[in-house]
Design goal:
The complex is a heterodimer of chains A (636) and B (342). Helix content of chain A is 5%, strand content 56%. Chain A is mainly beta. Chain A is globular and about 70 Å long. By secondary structure, chain B is mainly β.
Chain lengths: 636, 342
């Protein structure tokens, strides 16, 4: 398998492919470092309004792996942890990583790649440790929009894994090595040939993750070393697009093969358990400019995710294969630039084959309407509505209204109210003997207000939010002691977030802070002590800061993160202490003709903080990482 | 409080089977109850709560406070009192914590390897320990002097309760390796390691108690088939005396020797006399995670409400007529209550 993988990579690395000059004009542009890696995008899109960030009723966070990931081979989850105020809950490097925003759980957040949701149908969440950040051009965190734009699971918002357009040929080879047996090879080839764009990137990662921890159960307490979820990941991502003045075809694929240990926590380790994930995703989209007012698109998506868990100690094997095929058609009507309408309809067919249970195939039909109207008072109005119809448990209606009021050239106010939903998962519905076919979708109402300011070298936004989740699905023991899921969870979250960024000379300072008060609204059973308490693993305060300097070809980054106390029991009787970490990174870049060579070194957790994101799943102490990257741009 | 008795479902009978240990003290006024809090699976928050029924003094995290910074581990399944030592069987941590019964300070740790899943323990008259395992077909022999596992005996299924009586080990065969429900009580000669016979039971035998004459086993039944019940075993002749089907599942069993009363968790708390187990009286139709009984002039049933296993539980005290007399907040997923004399 690896050999085939390497052959493919070497093939695309072939520098004998003729050099070409592109006539393609990228539609989005922003500052990119010299060795930024970009994938092509199509020019025409019926799936979004062509508005700048300042014109939208949201303040998104855009994370660009190319600006930071040269420090080490990070997953998408780790990138979010290190670059945003989102709360990442990981079971250690190489293991399951989920993201929680504004008190919503991992299954209450939608992760999108292209026209495809990455949320797993059986469990509802996305394991972000499976997605190498280095393959993603831009990761967008949007907490202001929800299900009426992105569909199921977008209760707390959406994370978009974006790929950006490119206009010049580029070949990149990157090698990394670091502490705890971390090694990574990445290759990428971007080739524009006339109207054709070919972009293929692959990465091979190997992590032993063998680091020390304090065994608080041993007699006496001892410092031990163990493998914390060793991991072998191969991933290949490709995009081929062909665009003319009024139409575009784009084909994307993403293959991932991950083998990892599941050693359990340090209290009850189980070192023999393994999990293998095999993921294949693909999509093809055809977009067309029909006339000056109408744009249309048609896309076909397909995915297959095989998950195989094996515990030799109990001879337990759990094998599942979830499949999906979808067809989506969309249109955008441009009455005037200030009055636009988008509409789409899609049908998805999904089926699960698992060793645990049998589930009926699922048909999922969607109708969606999104509008944009800008008044003469510079007020942008964004009404949206969406209906999701599932063949096995019914319908969900989503709606939202967003407002964006420009105050000055550099400041604006925005607000959004959303009704979002998350469907019951296949496990919730069909787990043998325990699943509950009477479940209905979880519903969340979100309300936020924000102020954004951007002028010269300063950018910032502050937001306050209040959320309410009803019909939340939770597995609780019944009268017979068996856990079953029911729509019993009611949660309210209020809080505020702040993001600031300031550039001066060769320096840049950025920081974020979030305050979260997330609590159960009502008792789920007699004597429930959770009511009024902070939710599990939801810190009240989280803070991150980054200082960056770039002098000539030398870059320096210092990162600081603080996470407040996180409760591990619902009565708030046990908790993880607050922790803070500091990372330092240095990169030197050399330009030689058409080649660019960079070398980087980084120290993570330089203070050697002893901490964990999930109790008894220790995170590594101080670690060192080194990388070299060679980029060839023959047209420069 | 004149007479204090507490009977842990399994441990009491194990204790009574061991001649050197006893909790049947009628004159103690200075004992304390120890609540075994299983903790949430995988969370490593098993704990001990101590409770003085005379003063109502309650102390949480007794093991952690006496052994800081050490923690007890993951899923405290059972405990056995023997020679002033309290053996705490921590299932998902694959270990037995040997503590001083008076101070609860740790003295040693018996670690299990591989797939062993320790559940319950018995100690023979010659001082050998035997431990059942849910996910292997073996029970494990433990050398108590070296705190090590020395041997294993194949009994053909994953096992739950274990009792040492009449020079034999009686082992509840609960779970097959394919996770289907097993049945039968294996009769094991601890000296030779031979399984001499397997006594037929209803499906899913779990916990065992000795009433002075007979061994009683509660059988959970097959999931969803409501075919649990009790099995009475004559340990002298090593045969089944009777089967008592409940037409329901069962999940807990405890015994009061003072009143010769069995208490069973089956759709609530049921009580019955050992002489007429078919005549059951419902004390409470409320669901509980575990029950223990403690005699203080009359039987008091300690019924454990584990709630959702993610927060502290509650132990309710029931008189045998169903009246709740008191309740205490304890640790996560309270399982059993045992009595220790000071």
């Amino acid at each position: 398998m690896k050999i085939i993988f390497f052959i493919i990579l070497i093939w695309v690395w072939n520098s004998c492919i003729p050099e070409t000059v592109s006539a393609h004009n990228p539609i989005n542009s922003y500052h990119q470092p010299a060795d930024t890696l970009q994938l092509p995008d199509i020019v025409i899109s019926a799936n979004r309004f062509e508005l700048s960030d300042k014109e939208r009723s949201s303040a998104v966070q855009r994370l660009r792996p190319s600006e930071t990931v040269w420090r080490t081979a990070l997953s998408a989850g780790s990138l979010i942890e290190k670059s945003s105020i989102a709360n990442v809950r990981g079971y250690g490097p190489g293991a399951l990583q989920t993201v929680s925003i504004q008190g919503f759980s991992g299954s209450q957040l939608n992760v999108h790649w292209g026209d495809m949701s990455l949320n797993h149908a059986m469990v509802g969440l996305v394991d972000l440790s499976l997605y190498p950040a280095i393959l993603i051009d831009e990761l967008v965190i949007n907490t202001n929009q929800g299900s009426s734009e992105y569909g199921a699971h977008a209760l707390g918002g959406v994370i978009l894994l974006e790929q950006n357009p490119f206009s010049e040929e580029r070949q990149t080879l990157r090698l990394e090595a670091g502490s705890y047996g971390s090694q990574s090879v990445q290759m990428r080839y971007q080739l524009p040939v006339g109207n054709l764009r070919v972009d293929v990137a692959g990465v091979l990662q190997q992590q032993d993750n063998d680091y020390t921890y304090d065994d608080v159960t041993s007699n006496p307490v001892e410092t031990r070393r163990r493998r914390n979820a060793d991991k072998s990941l191969n991933s290949l991502l490709g995009t081929i697009s062909y665009a003319t003045s009024n139409s575009a075809h784009e084909t994307r694929f993403w293959l991932t093969d991950v083998k990892s240990g599941v050693p359990g926590n340090i209290i009850a380790p189980n070192y023999g358990s393994r999990q293998n994930d095999g993921i294949l995703r693909g999509m093809h989209k055809y977009s067309r400019v029909i006339n000056n007012q109408w744009h249309g698109s048609l896309s076909l998506t397909a995915s297959r995710h095989q998950l195989d868990f094996f515990d030799p100690s109990t001879n337990l094997e759990s094998l599942s294969k979830s499949h999906h095929v979808g067809l989506r058609t969309g249109a955008r009507y441009l009455h005037t630039p200030n009055a636009q309408l988008r509409m789409s309809a899609s049908h998805n067919y999904g089926w699960i084959r698992t060793s645990e249970y049998e589930a009926p195939d699922r048909h999922h039909t969607v109708f969606q309407l999104n509008g944009y109207l800008k008044t003469s008072l510079d007020l942008g109005i964004f009404p949206s509505m969406r209906i999701d119809r599932y063949s096995d448990f019914g319908s969900a209606v989503s709606a939202s209204l967003g407002l964006n009021q420009s105050l000055t050239e550099s400041s604006r106010l925005f607000t959004n109210i959303n009704r979002n939903f998350a469907p019951p998962t296949f496990n919730d519905l069909y787990w043998p003997g325990l699943g509950n076919s009477d479940l209905v979708p979880e519903v969340a109402f979100k309300l936020d207000f924000g102020f954004a300011y951007s002028k010269d070298s300063f950018e910032g936004d502050v937001q306050i939010f209040t959320n309410s989740i009803d019909n939340g699905i939770q597995w609780l023991p019944g009268n017979n002691g068996q856990f079953r899921p029911s729509n019993i969870r009611s949660v309210s979250s209020t809080g505020a977030s702040l993001n600031l960024q300031y550039r001066f000379s060769v320096f840049q300072l950025a920081g974020g802070y979030t305050y979260l008060n997330s609590r159960y609204k009502s008792e789920r059973f007699p004597g429930d002590q959770a009511k009024g308490n902070q939710l599990l693993y939801q810190p009240k305060h989280r803070f991150n800061a980054r200082a960056t300097s770039r002098i000539n070809n030398t870059s320096f980054i210092a990162d600081f993160f603080f996470t407040d106390r996180r409760y591990t029991t619902e009565d708030n009787g046990l908790w993880l202490d607050p922790h803070q970490t500091v990372d330092l990174s240095l990169q030197q870049q050399i330009e030689i003709g058409t080649y660019s060579l960079s070398a980087s070194a980084s120290i993570e957790n330089i203070l050697d903080e002893n901490y964990s994101q999930i109790r008894f799943y220790p995170m590594p102490g101080r670690s060192f990482h080194f990388a070299i990257q060679l980029t060839r741009r023959p047209n420069r | 409080m004149n007479k204090l008795y507490l009977y842990l479902t399994t441990c009491l009978l194990l204790i009574s089977a061991c001649s050197e240990s006893s909790t049947n003290s009628n004159d103690s006024e200075s004992g304390q109850l120890i609540i075994l809090n299983e903790g949430a699976f995988g969370q490593g928050n098993a704990s001990l709560t101590t409770y003085d029924p005379t003063t109502r003094e309650l102390r949480q995290n007794a093991f952690a406070s006496r052994n800081s910074p050490r923690l007890l581990g993951d899923v405290l399944q059972s405990a056995l009192l023997h020679d002033d030592e309290l053996y705490l069987v921590v299932n998902n941590s694959k270990k037995i914590e040997v503590t001083d019964a008076k101070t609860l300070t740790s003295k040693s740790t018996i670690n299990f390897q591989g797939a062993a899943s320790p559940r319950y323990m018995a100690i023979t008259s010659d001082g050998k320990g035997f431990v059942t395992s849910l996910f292997t077909e073996y029970i494990y022999e433990v050398d108590l002097t070296t705190a090590s596992v020395t041997d294993s005996i194949m009994i053909g299924a994953g096992s739950e309760g274990i009792l040492y009586q009449n020079d034999r080990l009686f082992v509840a065969r609960n779970l097959n390796l394919d996770f289907s429900t097993a049945s039968g009580v294996a009769v094991v000669n601890p000296s030779t390691g031979a399984v001499e016979s397997v006594l037929e039971t209803l499906p899913g035998p779990q916990r065992m108690i000795f009433d002075g004459t007979s061994i009683w086993v509660n059988n959970a039944g097959v999931w969803g088939e409501n075919n649990g019940g009790l099995t009475q075993i004559d340990p002298v002749n090593k045969r089944v005396a009777q089967q008592v089907p409940f037409d329901a599942s069962t999940s807990g069993l405890t015994f009061s020797p003072e009143t010769s009363t069995l208490y069973v968790l089956s759709g609530g708390i049921q009580r019955m006399s050992t002489s007429s187990p078919d005549q059951r009286t419902t004390i409470s139709d409320r669901s509980f995670y575990a029950i223990s009984v403690y005699h203080d002039d009359e039987d008091i049933v300690y019924a454990s409400d584990a709630k959702n296993f993610a927060q502290n539980g509650t132990v309710y005290m029931y008189k045998n007529d169903g009246v709740v007399t008191d309740s205490i907040q304890v640790g996560i997923a309270p399982r059993d209550v045992i009595y220790l004399k000071n």
